[in-house]
Design brief:
The complex is a heterotrimer of chains A (257), B (218) and C (638). Chain A has 257 residues and is of the alpha+beta class. Helix content of chain A is 33%, strand content 11%. The longest helix of chain B is centred in the first third of the chain and has 31 residues. Classes of the chains: A alpha+beta (257), B mainly alpha (218), C alpha+beta (638). Chains A and B meet through helix 6, helix 7 and helix 8 of A and helix 1, helix 2, helix 4 and helix 8 of B. The structure holds flavin-adenine dinucleotide (FAD), protoporphyrin IX containing FE (HEM), iron/sulfur cluster and FE2/S2 (inorganic) cluster (FES). Flavin-adenine dinucleotide (FAD) binds next to helix 2, helix 5, strand 6, helix 6 and strand 15 of chain C.
């Protein structure tokens, strides 16, 4: 089959970008979309033109590195899948396919469809962890976790940090991502001691990165490749409000003997 | 205090402000609607109801105070959020396809301001009587009936209240999520409830101009 | 030269304790004066960087992805082993040790393996405390399953995402240290050279993959945790970016490479579909618990619809050949058996390169719901990729390159032959011998990173003063310059072929001659072809664009250039090892029934190669292996 592409090309973060049209012929329906782009790139190299830059790594839907907006839908409309899991059989011969980068102020474009998502890392750095020294943990079975909680925590932890939720949200909000981490750790007994400080710190960082706020469009959940539920956003809101109402930072007391 | 400030400065805190002020506004409108519908019970009942309200100025002012606070908080915060959200995506998509959102959700920033102008107009119209200086303050019933006999006024009220329906549909569903007081098990029910409420208030409000036009009032 | 593995002596269960006691310690107040570079943020790298940072060292960590959380450890589905014996089925540290040595076909070092089994229990504690959402039983205790043919249930798992969840745990620990300022993280930055000063590892040279800036970083010790080299084969279950570059750079700077021919071919992958195919996808091995592997008895039936092949015309060859283990034989055996039936012309699917993995019996026995509960996400994944519904038609699978047991040679302390250069995770050769057991790589990565490297690097640093080499040191400048020149050279060739086209060709060559079965003449062909291909590469490569920008072609070119040299050594190693063991199957060395035959007389050693220059023959050094605790036996899974 043959398809036409409208691809966002932008030399670097400073330059202005534009769409370029390409034709991809001899596309096999069994190809993934990224493999189709590989073939297009091979053709561009033959013409001495710069190939289309796009992020990818595992190509099996788990690393969260890939992320294109395909015909207006982050990761394409396969549902519960990443960009690298989208196959050409989902398209028709002669289709025009629009390919754009994830767009958000917090995700500046680096080149073509490659964006900088380190803002998400900084949200985790603000408090998305449980402070445990290497080697200081008690026997794993001393911490009982009710199965329902463990399963729910796993649902939240399934987030691969791809940022599609941000890309899909009309407000470029990162609440689904942030909520997933706050919920994952907040649902486990191990996460309780830092539950409040974590929620406050992560939300603060999320705001500082310039993401928008949630207005409950639910677009994030619809594109999330790991089907992380917006119920976690409600949980985060609840945790955050509780934390804001009750949390008192511990006073530093030095000395001792 | 410091916590309260940083809470309301945060994106989630602002959502709480929207939701709480929204609930206040919604509570008021429900009461207001109940009052309005008495117009169908005849002039005496309706004017009597208005008079009772006016006989308790203290209560009325406390009530108005809360309303003003809620309106200011709701509007100021909505503007802040809208600006923040706009800034979060300086460059939009050439193609964007929505998968889940609703018309009501997407138009909150439109239906909200429409409501604002509508409320101002409505206050000037019936509360302060600035638009129709010849209205008789004590005979609200006649004012209402006379106004709504004019088709343009009725139609604008009907449109505004349709907007209101949309706003309240998304608002009522959304506020539980914003406050984090929902649960996956009840979310479906909540959505139906929001729909029911939206239909109820819209029909409740629209009933008056429609009723007047249809000649159900004397 | 014989290599000194530097193992402690005495009873095996006391060795690690003994070594820890002998170690030099660094005064807590002095730790921050020491700089440690960790390359890689996978399970090994992230856990090492986080733990070293927590101890107070000044750590710099690098990865080529945009976030440390994306290292390919993320892709592991199945699980992680630990000798917890939570299921009360007779497991113990000794049994895990024993299974690993035996599973590795007696080509691993006993002391290392024992330590691995010993710290495995701490790993689970550590990860659980970090909030890794391991599967639980209804009582709230951890759940276990049996995996990869193990006779005990010692595998911990987190849905189908064990690797991702463990990595997120390590990533979060790393994030905590980044926030605390003890670790400086550089993403999208690729190590292109190792800096060696006076024979000691003193830093690395990196390229910023966004701006193209080439930078030197100096340190008191360097740890490479850069993963395996499976992508030398082009098609593998590794991520597209996985590469042998860091290993190869270190090798060229004096670090010996051990057993590069020990590669693992995983039996349950989705078969190749077309020429454009960019990678292979693994289906978790756990599928073999309930799926039955078969092909038609007669090659003439290969093209037929499954429903048209009656039961008696099917050959459940694993059950037939290995009645005791059936479909659960170790990976190398299952892979080879699949190759044999396909070579017989009985393979199914495009090109006859596939065998059936059939769930019809299990669905009938357990019900579709149960199968869905166990494997739902795997079935969905298969369906996504192949557009075939495995609930209705059997899956088709074929072996694919998956893991590399070989790697940089390290001693007991995980230090390479270049002092100050440590190697952890899949990048080293240490613990799996000639074949890795399922769910043991995650264990090894975390063992190295959390519980070994932080000690042994400390011990190394404790013996020397901090600092000394600065960025203006002539060796540092020379290393940086050589990288700049190499990048220039790649850009300036101006030929006609893309890096990927060379990579594909190299991959095919390796798969053909150094894949599941190897024989002398094939290996010799490869040994001749690879240098030729390398020459073509340096003549006819085309890299569009410049070095001062985000240039993915340039990144690929650099990796392929090193793969072209690495592959040669891999083939050479395979050629020299005239025995079959684990993942390395030499057709010349098999029993009459076609099973692998080791030659312990001649090859019971680790082959560690020393680089002498490209196009020059490397020198082989042997580390003899002795087995005091696990008796040398031929593996049998009959
Ligand atoms: C599909 C799949 C499934 C698997 N399933 C299992 C399983 O169920 N159980 C199990 O035990 N094992 C499994 N394994 C094996 C296991 O996942 C790996 O062996 C292990 O995770 C490797 O970890 P690592 O830290 O050594 O390397 P990786 O996780 O690969 O990390 C390598 C790191 O090095 C960095 N890097 C590499 N080169 C450079 C460079 N030149 N410059 C800078 N940075 C560089 C990368 O950015 C990355 O951060 C599986 C492997 C695969 C491929
Ligand atoms: C009687 C009048 C009103 C009622 C009952 C009402 C009610 C609500 C409710 C319940 C919400 C949901 C809050 C949440 O999601 O948590 C909401 C949101 C919103 N309202 Fe109103 N509102 C009214 C008037 C207005 C006015 C006058 C404006 C604008 C100027 C406005 C603008 C908005 C906006 C923009 C939102 C969306 C904000 C968000 O979801 O984050 N509303 N409203
Ligand atoms: S919540 Fe979903 S869409 Fe958002 S980053 Fe995580 S996996 Fe991606
Ligand atoms: S490339 Fe890893 S998720 Fe798509």
């Amino acid at each position: 089959m043959r398809v036409f592409l409208q691809v966002w090309r932008q030399k670097n973060g400073q330059s202005k970008g534009r769409f370029e049209r390409y034709e991809a012929s001899e596309v096999s329906p069994d190809m993934s979309l990224l493999e189709m782009l590989d073939v297009v790139n091979e053709g561009l190299v033959q013409k001495n033109e710069a190939p289309i830059a796009f992020d990818h790594d595992c190509r099996e839907g788990i690393c969260g590195m890939c992320g294109l907006v395909i015909n207006g839908v982050p990761h394409g409309s396969e549902g519960g899948a990443t960009t690298c899991q989208l196959h050409m059989r989902k398209f028709q011969d002669g289709d025009e396919i629009w390919i754009e980068p994830f767009r958000a102020k917090a995700f500046p474009v680096l080149r073509d469809c490659v964006v900088d998502r380190t803002a998400l890392d900084r949200i985790i750095q603000a408090g998305g962890f449980i402070s445990v020294r290497t080697g200081s943990a008690p026997d794993a079975n001393q911490i009982l976790v009710p199965k329902e909680n463990a399963d729910l925590a796993m649902d939240a932890a399934a987030c691969i940090g791809c940022g599609a939720c941000v890309a899909a949200c009309p407000n470029a909000s990162a609440m689904l991502f942030t909520a997933a981490k706050i919920s994952h750790l907040g649902l486990l007994p191990q996460g309780q001691p830092e539950r409040h400080s974590r929620a406050l710190a992560m939300v603060k960082q999320m705001d500082a990165e310039g993401f928008g706020a949630c207005t409950n469009h639910e677009e994030c959940e619809a594109v999330c490749p790991k089907e992380v539920s917006i119920d976690f956003i409600a949980r985060m809101n609840r945790d955050f409000a509780k934390a804001a109402a009750t949390f008192r930072p511990p006073k530093a007391r030095g000395g001792g003997d | 205090m410091a916590t309260a400030v940083s809470f309301t400065a945060s994106s989630i805190g602002k959502k709480y402000v929207m939701a709480v002020s929204g609930i206040a506004l919604f509570g008021f409108t429900m009461a207001h609607m109940a009052g309005n519908l008495q117009v169908f019970l005849g002039r005496e009942r309706f004017n009597g109801y208005a008079a009772t309200l006016h006989a308790m100025p203290a209560v009325l002012w406390v009530f108005r105070g809360v309303m003003i606070l809620a309106v200011v908080a709701h509007i100021v915060t909505s503007v802040q959020l809208a600006l923040r959200n706009r800034a979060a995506r300086p460059q939009g998509y050439a193609k964007k396809q929505s998968l889940a959102t609703t018309y009501a959700a997407r138009t909150m920033v439109v239906s909200g301001p429409i409501l604002f102008f509508y409320i101002v107009y409505h206050l000037l119209h019936f509360t302060f009587n600035t638009l129709h200086p010849n209205y008789e303050v004590t005979d609200l019933y006649s004012n209402v009936v006379a106004s709504f006999r004019q088709v343009p006024i009725s139609v604008s009220y009907i449109i505004a209240n349709a907007c209101f329906g949309f706003h309240v549909f998304h608002g009522a569903y959304s506020l539980f999520q914003s406050l984090g007081v929902n649960h996956p098990r009840y979310n479906g029910a909540l959505r139906s409830l929001a729909m029911a409420i939206a239909v109820l208030v819209t029909t409740g409000f629209i009933a008056v101009p429609v009723g007047v036009l249809a000649g159900l009032t004397k | 030269m014989t290599l000194n593995s530097n193992c402690p002596t005495g009873p095996i269960e006391k060795r690690w304790e003994k070594r820890r006691f002998e170690m030099k310690l660094v005064n807590p107040a002095n730790k921050r004066k020491y700089n440690v570079i960790v390359v890689g943020s996978g399970l090994a790298g992230a856990s090492a960087a986080a733990s070293l940072g927590e101890l107070g060292y000044n750590v710099q960590c690098f990865c080529y992805q945009d976030s440390p959380r994306r290292a390919h450890s993320i892709a592991a589905q199945g699980g992680i082993n630990a000798a917890k014996n939570y299921t009360n089925d007779g497991d113990s540290i000794f049994r895990l040790f024993y299974d690993t040595v035996k599973g590795g076909d007696f080509r691993a070092r006993e002391s290392n393996v024992y330590r691995l089994a010993e710290v495995s229990v701490d790993i689970i504690d550590q990860c659980a405390a970090q909030g890794v959402p391991f599967a639980r039983e209804y009582g709230g205790l951890l759940a276990n399953r049996s995996f990869g043919g193990a006779q005990v249930s010692r595998t911990f798992y987190a849905r189908g995402q064990t690797g991702q969840q463990l990595l997120i745990g390590a990533y979060q620990a790393l994030a905590r240290q980044i926030a605390a300022g003890t670790v400086k993280m550089s993403c999208r930055s690729e190590m292109l050279e190792l800096i060696v000063v006076d024979g000691v590892a003193r830093g690395i040279v990196t390229r910023d993959m966004v701006t193209g800036k080439i930078e030197a970083h100096v340190a008191d010790a360097v740890a490479l945790c850069t993963g395996g080299y499976g992508n030398v084969f082009y098609l593998s279950t590794n991520a597209k970016g996985c590469n042998a570059m860091a290993l190869w750079r270190a090798h060229k700077k004096g670090a010996y490479l051990a057993n590069p021919c020990f590669t693992q071919i995983h039996p349950t992958c989705i078969p190749v579909k077309g020429e454009y195919q960019s990678k292979l996808t693994l289906m978790s091995e756990s599928l073999r618990n309930d799926g039955r592997v078969w092909v038609p008895k007669d090659g003439k039936d290969s093209g037929k619809r499954v429903s048209d092949i009656p039961e008696e015309a099917r050959d459940y060859y694993l059950e037939r050949r290995y009645p005791a283990f059936g479909n659960l034989v170790p990976r190398d055996i299952a892979s080879r058996a699949a190759k044999q039936v396909c070579d017989d012309g009985r393979g199914v699917g495009p090109g006859g390169l596939g065998v059936y993995l059939d769930f019809a019996d299990s669905i009938q026995r357990l019900g579709k719901k149960m199968i869905e509960e166990r494997y739902g996400n795997l079935f969905d994944m298969y369906h996504h990729i192949t557009d075939e519904n495995p609930y209705e038609v059997p899956m088709r699978i074929y072996p694919a390159v998956h893991y590399t047991m070989g790697g940089l040679w390290v001693d007991y302390d995980l230090m390479s032959t270049v002092p100050g250069l440590f190697v952890g995770g899949e990048a080293n050769f240490s613990d799996h011998g000639a074949n890795r057991l399922g769910a043991s790589a995650l264990m090894q990565g975390l063992a190295d990173g959390y519980f070994v490297l932080p000690y042994t690097i400390g011990h190394y640093l404790g013996q020397r003063a901090a600092g000394g080499v600065k960025l203006d040191h002539p060796e540092v400048k020379a290393a940086k310059k050589s990288v700049e020149e190499r990048v220039r050279k790649l850009l300036d060739i101006g030929g006609s072929r893309s890096p990927d086209s060379f990579h594909r060709e190299l991959g095919l060559l390796c798969w053909e001659h150094c894949g599941m079965a190897r024989k002398k003449d094939g290996l010799e062909i490869a040994l001749q072809r690879i240098p030729e291909l390398r020459e073509e590469f340096w003549k006819d490569l085309r890299v569009v664009g410049s070095g001062e920008e985000l240039n993915q072609e340039l990144e690929r070119a650099g990796r392929v250039a090193d793969a072209l040299e690495f592959a040669e050594l891999m083939v050479r190693d395979a050629l020299h090892r005239e025995e079959s063991c684990g993942g390395h199957f030499r057709e010349e060395s098999q029993t009459p029934e076609g099973e692998a035959m080791r030659d312990d007389e001649r090859f019971c050693y680790v082959a560690a190669w020393a680089h002498q220059g490209v196009d020059k023959e490397p020198v082989l050094h042997k580390e003899p292996l002795s087995f005091e605790y696990v008796k040398l036996t031929q593996r049998s899974y009959k």
